[in-house]
Design a protein that fits this description.
Blueprint (H helix, E strand, L loop, with lengths): L4 E3 H4 L3 E4 L5 E11 L4 E9 L5 E6 L3 E5 L2 E4 L6 E2 L10 E3 L7 E4 L4 E11 L5 E7 L2 H7 L1 E5 L11 E3 L1 H4 L3 E4 L2 H4 L4
Parallel strand pairs: 2-7, 10-14
Antiparallel strand pairs: 1-11, 2-3, 3-4, 3-9, 4-5, 5-8, 6-7, 10-11, 11-12, 12-13, 13-15
Pfam family, one: PRC
InterPro entries: PRC-brl_dom (IPR027275), PRC_barrel-like_sf (IPR011033)
Length: about 180
Amino acid sequence: MVIVMLRISEIIGYPVICSDTGKKEGEVKDVLIDLNSKKLSALIIDCGNILHKIKIIQFNDIFCIEKKFIKAKYKKNLISKKKFMGSRDFYKKVDEIIGKEVVSEKGALIGFVQDILFKNNDGMILGLVLTNGFLDDIFSGIQIIPVDKSIDLSSSKILLSEKMKNTILNNIGGLKKFLELE
């Protein structure tokens, strides 16, 4: 398997195909993140057309994440929400992290979480993609914060130490870089 860095927004809507049946069993609707290990824990799958049944597949039960689809090991690995083991305190849905403010220790606004980068082979979160608004993103580019153990994703705001603030990857793309204005 080729290890690839993906954005969570890319896999939302991906069909989930089970290896044992060869059939599409549903589509990814959301992702659960383990806040302690900073890894993707499970995918929330919408199964069905008219009656939307929600199933969960733990990240360990995913065979591979390819371009445009996710392959699960077995259909039996798609479990009901009730059977999903784990404390709800340690898991957050991605939509509970997207949009959070990222501020420095001194209280300065750095940006808002727009997306989350992860490795497709183990679900390890690599970084947070920040936005400062559509126009600023077009002109200045985006910022990416590498995620380490010091970043707390469970609080209402994400607080960055001055040390972490220096690790931000700035100006990824944008007209400033393209026009070489910096």
